[in-house]
Amino acid sequence: KINDSLIFLGPLYDLRTFDNYHLNGRLPDRPAEPRSPVIYRGELQYRRYGEAGAEDFCACCFSGRSPNGTSVTWKTRWLDSPEARSLEAGGLVGYLDGKPVSAVEWFNLGRVNHCLVPDDAKSAFIICCYPGEGETDYRTPLLPRLREELSQKDFKNAYLISGRNSVYPNGPLPFFQALGFEIVKEMGRVYLTIGDAFEDIFLLRMKL
Known about the structure:
Largest sheet: 8 strands, mixed
Shape: globular
Oligomer: single chain
Strand content: 25-35%
Strand order of the largest sheet: 1-9-10-8-6-5-4-3
Low-confidence stretches: 10-24
């Protein structure tokens, strides 16, 4: 928590960022900018966790594209970790002409005590739904495949946290509403380290 109206999105941010805000007395004074990409509605090819490499997941996430390779190194360790297996974590990467263009990752809510989401062993929590790089959003064909994957694992619901305007975290809100997600609750306003702005966030649910 930064102040009475602004929080960090998650608990894992660098504490130096938090300290800088208190030391400098500076808070973001602008909302996240809306993004209006071209929506791709064609076909994609898919690979799951264990089939797609860490570099393919990171290539789809603008916060994960690291020139020094640290994000890829971390993701490689995560994909092979006991923690990922214990959370029943899963993921899909979508490919167009052999290039990774979108990805989604989730875990079983029954395996973790998430402070923002109901404890539900029959639900999945979507950690990230990556739109890919550039002016085209490739997530639309990914979501029906995600629904199929989660239904096969006997999940009844899928939750995610979405920003109102930005694609980080996930979002924008109308994109997911058009694909069948409903608002469970408004969760307040968060500071986005990417873009140095604030954003309203929502807990969404899709019934499977």
